[in-house]
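Researcher: Checking consistency across runs. Here is Replication restart protein PriA again:
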Amino acid sequence: MTVAARLVEVALPLPLLRTFTYAVPERTRHPLLPGSRVVAPVRGKRVIGICVGESDGAQLGGKEAKALLDVPDATPALPPDLLAVCRWISEYYVAPLGLVCRAVLPAALGSATKPDAPGKQERILVLSGELPTLLGRDEAFKRAPQQRQLYELLEQLGGRAAVTHLVEQLGCTPSVVTGLVKRGLVRIEQASRLRDPFADRSVARAALPTPTPAQREAIDRIVASPPGAVTLLHGITGSGKTLVYLEVLKEMVLQQGKSAIVLVPEIALTPQAVDRFRAVFGDQVAVLHSGLSDGERLDAWRALQRGERRIAVGARSAVFAPLENLGAIIVDEEHEASYKQAETPRYHAREVAIMRARETGARCVLGSATPALETWVNARDGRYGQISLPERVGGGALPPVRVVDLRQELRAAPAPQRALRSVLSVPLERALHDRLARGEQSILLLNRRGYASFVQCDEGHVATCPNCSISLTYHRTPERLVCHYCMHQASAESNCADCGLPFKRQRGLGTQQVERLLGDVLPTARIARMDVDTTSGKWAHTAILDRVASHEVDILLGTQMIAKGLDFPNVTLVGVIDADIGINLPDFRSSERTFQLLSQVAGRAGRGPKGGEVFIQTRAPSHHAVRCAMTHDYLGFVNEELPARDSPPYPPTLRLANVVVSGLDEAAVAAFATEVADWLTQAELRFGLGVTLLGPAPCPLERIKNRWRWHVLLKSERQAPLTRLLRGLLTGIEVPARHDLRLVADRDPVSLL
Ligand code: ADP
Ligand code: ZN
């Protein structure tokens, strides 16, 4: 007589929206529970999966289940609340559960080979030559941009890092390392242990100031809110939100003995914020940042799981910290787009934080000076609690913001100066000269587009799509204006409907062009350029900000990324070169993004005793994003922006999903996008789900890294039909196996570019 084997469902890291049934061997190394890691045989390979529950074998269709090979851990890697969160992400974002689990666990737990044992010898790259000046650096790395990235990443990691880790972070070849070694700038050592760069940052224990009455009330209300509640903490910059977080954590962690998670948008850009938590909670804090090697990340994860550290601070993925008995989850700067993961699973860490708080009974705090409209509406309608801190601690004033009307500047400029004046107006140039003369520093923001251009008349009006109210994009061949949501087309030769003046093409300015112009006008200024497209991102970025802090730079010119590093007392001038560029991006959130950026700039500039000034150059001074940022008026902005999201409807009025098709061949991408749109149209007709389809159309960013991109937008008043349609599409349509075609569904997209 045979006893039927126990069957379980296993989530495997495969691009399929299903789980797999396996038989459990009679004897396993460790007990098998939901959330346990298992080693499963997949096409002759050993693959790590997660047991997600018992199985009735229905999926087997009469076939015999294969047996699991191993249960490697004594306790489940995913505790029950995290497994529930994984299930929710998989359902809502329509992502394979196995891929979700893999994204949630530290990378070292995702492979069937053993993670590096501590004490193992590694090749460590050590900084050995200094390049203190920016000019020296530019000169040294003129023909070796990859060496520069590596050098600056190493510098950022404290001057020591594992070779494998560096190569993996940059995606460069080992020859870049050899190049740097040959030049004597770095050397290779053998070592057995690595240092965590944050562990070495010394932080003095600090006593906290006494909360103001407004802060006290916020703290008390959050602590007294029911388990699982979400509270929006809407406080202007400088209103002391961080002290509120710290006091809430003191209560929850030190008094009540619970644990907590603090999410920050990007840790490399905000080391000071992290230091403030470490100054209060010391060794209780685990900082989860992208500089950690896989082994270090695993150590941090285990320390949290064992309860040795009870506060996790980190970016997006720290929301998955395996803490038991969670008391609070804090999402600082909750409006930031970086909380959305750009690859599968495309989750939003704020939404995951809310789900996890519900699951565990933790209090969830969403903090921002400029809350996302979705969040604001949820608070307005009573789904979230709301607390506002409308004043700066100590009553300090926000810096004056001057709007420079580029239309007037251009009218007043002599003809040969027009090109210069459209970049650098007379008032901004004068202000830069003043700062230089006084030995103070300036920051210039250029939110570049470069890839797509719009048309604007001299009065500042922009050609927009009549159906979608987003700006039309200029195309050269054939010359026309195109809506990248619905494919509406218009003549490029048209005149402005508001004032009758001809539309002119606005070319995106490059940071390099602006740098050259600045060099001509201010030949003695030490200018640093920060371009997210040319540096490998955050590490090089932090290195440049450090040089600004040590005053090796007079003018820092960069894209909106640098707005986050605006906390320098000697920076007394911030200029926004062209606010219109951000406003006119073909994305329904472009006004909101611009308002947030301008508010951030306006709120953070001139924090030091020398004060500061903000200049915003624009052809649209009466646009609500500019006007309301100038007067620091969030509610004013919301009151103008929300009605604009009603017709045509966009979030938060309804729900959105973006289905993106990409591939190496333009025609094949367009054809498959059309097939996808047809499939969706048919499904909608058949089931009457109430989902509106827009497109197919090329994405505003038509081509990224050699891949052509088209998209279809799905709008729905309710969530369930979107889930159903997306799931149906991803399981029902076959992606042709040619030209590397891919199909991706992005639920609640934060960017439609
Ligand atoms: P926010 O994050 O809201 O922009 P911060 O938390 O950075 O503001 O606080 C702004 C400044 O005010 C910081 O330098 C902080 O140390 C200080 N601060 C906050 N609360 C108090 C308080 N109750 N008493 C004195 N200083 C405070
Ligand atoms: Zn349109």
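Researcher: Does this match what you'd expect to see?
Model: One thing to look at in this run: Residues 453-507 form one domain.
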